Every structure is written in C-alpha cells, then in structure tokens.
UniProtKB/TrEMBL annotation:
This is G2E3 ligase. PANTHER family: G2_M PHASE-SPECIFIC E3 UBIQUITIN-PROTEIN LIGASE, PHD FINGER PROTEIN. One of its GO terms (cellular component) is nucleus. SUPFAM superfamilies: FYVE/PHD zinc finger (SSF57903), Hect, E3 ligase catalytic domain (SSF56204). It is found in: Nucleus. PROSITE patterns: EPHD. Its main location: nucleus. It comes from the Eukaryota. Pathway: Protein modification; protein ubiquitination. Residues 15-132 form the PHD-type domain. GO terms for molecular function: ligase activity; ubiquitin-protein transferase activity; zinc ion binding. Residues 305-336 are annotated as: Disordered.
Length: 748
C-alpha cells in the first residue's frame, strides 16, 4: 500500500497502526513516541523506526521524521513486508539480530516481549534472546534481595532480564523498568547511579543493556516554574494558645517569634516562644505527627512539659543548620580539674583550643578500653594507638602525593559551615587533588592574622565537628549512619564520605566518632558484620529488643511479640517462635535489620564517598591503623606529646644556659595547670591550629633558640623561635605574656 496518499476525510489518530510493527499501542515508555503524519497517512513508533535494520537518517533533523526520509521509510516498510517475525509469525519484521549467522527477525514490541536487547547508541544494534549481552555474576555476589534504589521496593539478586545491577556500586540493584523510567525523565545530562552519582561508567553499562537515554535535558528542567511551590514556606503558628500579640502569621527571624515548622511534615508551625523553645536548633513535632508516632509505638514517651517542646530525634532535621550539640562541652571558665576528670571533652562552641581525652568511640572497638583498667594496660593501649597513628600518618602522606599545586578556593561561612562547604565541594572546578585554600567570608580578622594553612585546618575542624553532630549519624559516642530519605535523595551521605576523605588527606583532624559496627561495615562489608544492642540509637527499638532478649518465659515472650507485631512485620522479622531459645535469632534479625539493612543505601553512598583519593582502599588494607583515628578520640595533648612533636635546633651554647631544659620545664608547668596558657594555646600560637592532624604537620614543627626579646610563632614554617634567657622565670614570663596577648588579639 502506498504511504503517500490524499488526506482521508475520517482520519482517526487513535486507531492508526504503526507502519512497521502493525500495532496501535501508544506507550512512549515502551515503544517511544507514537507519531502520526496526516499529510503522508503515516503513523510510526519512534523506537520501531530507530531500531529498523534497513534504514538510516539521510536527511537533516527537520526533514521527514527526525531525519528519516519518507521515501526511505516506504522502502523499509516494503522490505519488512517480506520478512516473517520469529516470535508472532506475522509479516513486517523490520529488526534483525546483529549476531553473525543469526537470521532471526522480529517486530520491536515482539522483541521487548521476548526479552531481546536493543542498544540505543552508535549504529543501534539489536540482539535476539539467544545472543543478547548479559551482566556477569560472580559466585561472591550476594544472593537474596535488596531495595531498588529508585522505587524502594525489593528486587531479587538474579541474572534475569528484568533486573540490572550497577557497574559502579557493589550492592546497588535496580528493576529494568525503573531504570528506563528514570532515564527518560533525567535525560543524558542527569541520568546517573542513584547511589554513588557515577555518570560515565553507569550510562555506558545501561546503554549496553538496552536502556534508552534520550539526548535532552531532564523533564523537570523543561517544565516552566516547576519549582515555584518550593519557594513558599509554611509560616503560621498552629499551637492551641498562641502568645504572639501580632498574630499567628507573624514571623520575626532570630527572635522568639520566629516560626519553627514541624520536623516531620513541615505543614504545621509554632513560634519558638509559644512552645517554650529556647533556640531554633531544637526540633518540634506537630500534634498530628506526634499522634501517628504514638499509635505506631515509635514515639518516645517524654516527660511532660508546659508546652510541646522537643529534643533532637532520629535525624530528619535539616542538615543545613547546625544541630544542637550532643555531648557535654567545657565552658570557657571551667577549672582544669574538670579536664582531668571528665570522660568526654569536646570543643567550645567556637571551636577554640580544646582537649580530648583518649577514649574509644565504642566499647566494642578493636583494642577497646574497659571502664576500669590498670595503669600498665592503659599505657600499653596508649603506646599501641600511637604506633597505629604513626602508621596512618605515613599512609596518608603516600596518598598526599596525588595532590597538585593547582588551587581551589573555598569561600566558607563559619556560621553556616555545612551549606557553604557543600556548595564548595560541588562547584564545577573543585577537584579533591587540587590544593585547597579557604577564605572565611564572615571573619575579616582571620584572613589577616591566620595563614592559609591555619584557615584550612580551622575549616576542616568545623566541618568534622558538624558532621559528627549532624542528622546523617545517630548514637551518642560511637556513631552509626542514620536513615534520612531526604539526605539519600540529595546524595548527602556521598558528600559526607567525600568530605571526610578529603579532610584526612588535606590535613584535617581525626574524626574519632565511628562505631566499631560502622567501621567494620565500611572495611569488611555489611554482610560480614554482627551489630550489638548498643548500636541501636532509637530508645523505643532498643527497649523492644531488650524486652525480647531478657524474656524469661514463653508467655512473656509471646506477649511481647504480640505487642510489637506491627514493628516486626515492618522490619521483615516475623518468625515462628516455638521455644524460648528462638528469641536469640529474633534479636539478631532485628539488630541486622535496624542497624544494617535499614541503612544500606546511606552506607553504600557513604562508602563511595570515602573512596575519594583512595582512602577507603587504604582503610581496607590497614584496618587496625585506621581504626585508631576513626573509632578513637584524638589523644589528649600532654607535655610528652608536644615535646615529641617539636624538633629542637640549637647550638651548644644554648644548652649551657638551659634553653632546652627551660622549654621542657615550661611544658610540664602548663600540663600541671601552673600557667595561664594551655598546651593547645602553644600549638595554636605556632601552627595556627589546636589539634594535631592525622597526616601530621607540613613542615614538621621545629624550635630555634635565638637571641631575641620575645617568642615568635612562625605559622608558615611551623617554627617556634624562643629567646635565650638567664633564668627559668624570665623564660616563663616571656612565654606567657607573648602567647596570651597574641591569641587574645586573634580572637578579638
């Protein structure tokens, strides 16, 4: 039948058949856009046209059908009319398998039904069900099921047509249909692995396996004013008794009349004063969300307050604001005895010089310390950790060889460290291998008094401190990853891993807050880790597990299981319990689900981020060494540590007047509290930072004794120039006066 005909009077667009496959189906996701050209009496599926074996685009884009000339389409239809489909046995099979000696032909819809592979790239090859490319599965591949990271439904780990695995992420599996929808929506510029954000390797594999990635912008970028609704924030106080005289809609930022939205739904609000909230950093839940959590048994019973105030919960709070600190802080006026007795010391709010006691982040960390131990065991543990840290220092120096002299400048707002750091790390010209320079946009004095290295050290200190207290992690001291779906969607776990890796290689502080379970998941894989009860941060879940674990009779166990049946079903942990000993397997199932399986997406994304600069690979090669900086708090500064840190360059005449002895004596006085300055002050005076980086200082700190009046801290060279004095008291007075005044000027 001729394609070019006069326009019929009753042309029904919906009932027209594709001239190549003969079907009327209009399903763009499967067959491409169905296009009808009334002037040519022609209807064709776009994919049928692309994949036909005997036609090429010989025209320009605006000629014919996207460059396929009408005369060529007519010739292809005539050619296909002589070929029988090997699937439906009807004529018109325009697509042939490209495998040598294979003579199978089929329609495009028939090929989809028979699970053929169509490659939408290069010369648009097609493979029949027998010769199609397949993904390689090794014996070590984990069997079972996991969440598809697009639809979040379960996907079986099977080598079948409907399932595809990521080429760049070990534990990322997808439904083929989900990937195709995602590709059509995201387009070639935004289609990438949803776990690690890899684009090139991921797209190459998906094209090979028959996913069509259109060469256009993402659908959400093409829609006009698509994000207009996101610019509107809910601004209304919904508590029963509003105290604001200017009304429920009044909102004054940075005051007690600022409106705080519900941390769960965001569609209810309250003035800070109306809910007795002291700061905006506190979280608040509306009554509707609170009742939902109460009915599900997941809401923690709290002490009654006069108004609905809330503590920080599981971690749905926005990461762009610094959450309230989760650990006790030393006040600026606290006595020195508190430093020696407190089991856990962190920095002050402004992260000025601080001191950490040496404690493991979890009581199950390798070589962890028991609450009571002899001085001998304590000393042995300290020596072991020091050896491991020296090993890490050398490993990180090997990784530092990758860094180039080309610089990347980060403009950082110290008051909004997370958002400014995220913006800097995501800027187009950022590369982990570039030398990083930091400029604090809201601190004019810092740029004048501090060196570039000091600003960089301070930035990484602020950043690691924020990450430790952010909603990406949960737990008290030894932290695990939390489950924050918004953070998963925004790829923030990847960015956090990347930031920690970059910080370690570029001279940042030791994180020191990983739990043993998190560290083992990163190093050995989650399938090889058994979590413990202390890994559960949720109070209600922990209480449920304890109740099951310590049930002493079948009746009490059955009663507990009945009460938490809904929770067990949601966790996939329902199992028949016929004996009291079955509770142990049940407890283990709950722990594995809550600590590991529930957070598998954040974990995989976090692991991909830690691969930056080869850090994760080194962690897996040297687990004991890296455990010393990731799972243990940094060693508290002592006179011995400072003495070992500095190399003294002196002549014989200096030794005669006791310069080196004065220095050692002064360090001991400072450590024992007989000085107005601290060991952190001394380190800050010389290097510009109050902590010792995991990678060490570059250049290494040195001391020179010179005939000068007062000490000089050369932060560019990490060199402390000390005056030669006749008496120790003169030496001490000059040290205290200079260091105290210099740091006071910088802080002001």
């Amino acid at each position: 039948e001729e394609l070019r005909m006069s326009k019929p009077n009753n042309f029904d667009v919906q009932s027209t058949c594709c001239v190549l496959c003969g079907r009327t189906d209009d399903c763009p996701e499967k067959y491409g856009e169905k296009r009808t050209y009334v002037e040519y009496n022609l209807t064709v599926h776009y994919y049928c046209l692309l994949m036909s074996s005997g036609i090429w685009q010989r025209g320009e884009e605006d000629e014919g059908v996207d460059g396929f000339l009408i005369t060529d389409i007519r010739k292809e239809v005539n050619r296909a009319a002589r070929l029988k489909c090997n699937i439906c046995k009807k004529k018109g099979a325009s697509i042939g398998c490209v495998a040598p000696k294979c003579k199978r032909s089929y329609h495009f819809p028939c090929g989809i039904q028979r699970e053929c592979i169509f490659q939408f790239m290069e010369d648009f090859r097609s493979y029949c069900w027998e010769h199609k490319p397949v993904q390689q599965f090794t014996d070590k591949e984990p069997r079972g099921a996991s969440q598809c990271t697009i639809c979040l439904d379960l996907v079986e780990h099977l080598p079948v047509y409907t399932v595809l695995k990521s080429p760049c992420c070990k534990n990322a599996w997808f439904h083929r249909e989900c990937l195709q929808y995602q590709a059509l929506s995201a387009g070639i510029f935004f289609f990438r692995c949803t776990v690690c954000n890899n684009k090139d390797k991921f797209q190459k594999e998906m094209l090979r396996m028959g996913i069509h990635i259109p060469e256009r912008d993402a659908s959400w970028e093409l829609e006009e004013n698509a994000y207009q609704d996101l610019l509107h924030c809910y601004q209304h106080c919904d508590v029963k008794r509003c105290l604001c005289k200017k009304g429920r809609d009044y909102n004054e930022p940075d005051s007690k009349w600022e409106i705080k939205r519900c941390q769960y739904c965001g569609s209810r609000g309250t003035h800070l004063a109306c809910s007795s909230m002291k700061s905006w950093e506190q979280n608040w839940e509306c009554m509707e969300c609170r009742s939902i959590f109460a009915k599900s048994g997941k809401y923690r019973k709290r002490k009654k307050r006069s108004f609905a105030a809330s503590e920080n919960t599981n971690g749905t709070n926005c990461l762009l604001e610094e959450p309230s600190p989760k650990s006790p802080r030393q006040s600026s006026g606290s006595p020195r005895s508190f430093l020696l007795q407190s089991p856990k010391i962190t920095c002050q709010n402004n992260l000025s010089p601080c001191s950490h006691l040496e404690l493991p982040a979890s009581n199950r960390v390798t070589r962890s310390l028991s609450p009571v131990m002899s001085n001998r065991n304590w000393s042995l543990t300290q020596n072991c950790l020091r050896e491991q840290r020296r090993e890490v220092c050398n490993i990180l120096k090997e990784l530092k060889v990758q860094l180039k002299t080309k610089t990347t400048r980060l403009n950082i707002n110290a008051e909004n460290i997370w958002s400014s750091a995220l913006k800097g790390f995501r800027q187009r010209n950022f590369s982990p291998t570039n030398t990083i320079e930091v400029s604090f946009s809201n601190c004019k004095s810092r740029s004048k008094t501090n060196t570039s290295a000091a600003s960089k050290h301070h930035f990484f200190q602020l950043l690691i401190h924020h990450l430790q207290n952010s909603s990406l992690f949960e737990g008290s001291s030894g932290k695990n990853l939390s489950l924050d779906f918004q953070a998963v969607k925004e790829n923030l776990y990847f960015e956090a891993g990347k930031m920690i890796a970059v910080s370690l290689v570029h001279g940042g502080p030791s994180p020191g807050f990983f739990s043993k379970t998190l560290f083992d998941c990163l190093v050995y894989g989650p399938e090889n880790v058994e979590p413990a009860l202390e890994d559960v941060a949720d109070v209600d879940v922990a209480q449920t597990i304890k109740t099951i674990k310590y049930a002493n009779s079948m009746s009490s166990l059955q009663s507990t299981l009945q009460d938490c049946c809904e929770f067990l079903a949601a966790a996939g942990c329902l199992r028949p319990v016929t004996a009291l000993c079955d509770k142990n397997m049940l407890v283990n199932d709950i722990l594995i689900y809550h600590v590991i399986k529930r957070t598998i997406l954040p974990l995989e994304s976090f692991r991909q981020g830690l691969k930056t600069l080869g850090v994760l690979e080194k962690m897996q090669m040297h687990p004991d060494a890296f455990s010393s900086i990731l799972c243990h708090k940094p060693e508290r500064l002592s006179a011995e540590v400072i003495c070992d840190l500095f190399t003294i360059h002196s002549s014989s005449n200096v030794n005669k007047v006791g310069g080196a002895d004065f220095w050692m004596g002064y360090l001991q006085d400072v450590e024992s509290g007989e000085s107005v300055v601290t060991l952190e002050d001394i380190l800050l005076f010389v290097t510009g930072t109050c902590y010792i980086p995991s990678i060490g200082f570059d250049p290494e700190p040195t001391i020179k004794f010179l005939r000068i009046r007062y000490p000089i801290g050369n932060k560019l060279l990490n060199c402390l120039e000390l005056p030669i004095t006749k008496t120790y008291q003169q030496f001490k007075n000059k040290m205290e006066l200079t260091i105290r005044n210099a740091l006071r000027v910088e802080r002001e």
